[in-house]
Hints:
Elements: H1 2-20, H2 28-33, H3 48-63, H4 72-96, H5 100-121, H6 128-156, H7 165-185, H8 190-208, H9 215-240
Helix pairs in contact: 1-3, 1-4, 3-6, 4-5, 5-6, 6-7, 6-8, 7-9, 8-9
InterPro entries: TspO/MBR-related_sf (IPR038330)
Protein name: DUF2339 domain-containing protein
Organism: Luteimonas endophytica
Amino acid sequence: MRLLVLLSAIAMPLVAWLSQRGMFGPDQGTVSDRYPTLLVAAGYAFSIWGLIFLLDLAYAAWQATGGRRREPLLGRIALPAALGFALTAAWMPLFSQGLFWLCLVVIFAALACLGWCALLLSRPGTDALAWAALSLHAGWLSLAAFLNLAQAILAYRWLPTGDMLGWSLALFATAAAVLLGLNQRMRGNLAYVAAALWGLGAVYVKQSRSGLDGAEAAAWTALAIALLLGLQTLWLRRRGGGMATPLPGGG
């Protein structure tokens, strides 16, 4: 199982590289531009995948070597981590092909897998590398899944496309509930929150410059969620003494 974690971690940047070269169809940026929504983020935000892939690869190699192969917690999260990585890799060609309904199944399943890993790792005594890698990945997916959902709604016209503000605000509210709920369970997980704040800031930047109806309201909504998430994190960490940041060498 540890080898499967490593192989699936290698698959993510490999598939991303192939995807950017058009091996599966148009790249993600091209497809995304076809479906402008009130939740989409500025293009620079997706550079976070480079850091996510790097940390995931480091974690995957580390957990497969030495005494870590016998560490119970790492063994417990091996299967969901491998599934989360594999689903992340699978999402990219599916998105390039415009299979948005299948993308939704895949990205929410990946979020479930990696969110569960992040929850287990957000405790004293766990290793900082495992915690940072999987928490950052889960934090980004917690927002990206709803950006994907908004584009699916637009692509399939499941809801009115002329006036997107109403259902977009509902998606913002649901995303906020997921972010705040998981962050509460993880007692203020800095890596998880950092990824979410990065994405919310990019949504604000994109929507504040957008000409779509309702974009200004969407921009301020993203900023409000970011502020609320940041304040919640400060409160949780003050109350819990920063227990959600594992120390190097733990576990």
